[in-house]
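2024-03-11 09:14:02 INFO queue: dequeued item Major facilitator superfamily (MFS) profile domain-containing protein, len=146
2024-03-11 09:14:02 INFO validating residues
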Amino acid sequence: MTYFGRRTLYLTGMVVMFCLLLIIGCICVTPSASKGGSWGIGSMLLLFTLVYDCTVGPVCYSLVAEIPATRLRSKSIVIARNIYNVGCIVNNIITPYMLNPTAWNWKAKTAARKFKTTAVDPFNGVTSELDTPKSAAIMVENVEKE
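2024-03-11 09:14:37 INFO prediction written
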């Protein structure tokens, strides 16, 4: 994180993942669901995971741990992790139903629906841009004063 700031990594990761969801959605609506299309979707999902694991995933841990004041730090971390864990539980329960051909049978259209949800939510990118603090030169003393 010495070459790029946390905010830059976070927002770049969000934009790239947004674009990858669009690509997966476009591949899944092509009329011929060929073997090449399946390989393309699979590779885009792997790239999506790589982008998340290199940008948004680790940066959120550092932001949650560094930004709050000392008195609120442990409480902020606990609340953030609990919300993240509940979201992961819900996502891990719903996703197999979305992808399973004998259940909801959405297949790769799941990515298109997640893209639509992200695109329709106007506050997703705006709040990421405005509410993610620049913590590049923030000292602990400065955080305590704010």
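2024-03-11 09:14:37 INFO annotate: The mean pLDDT is 76.
2024-03-11 09:14:38 INFO item closed
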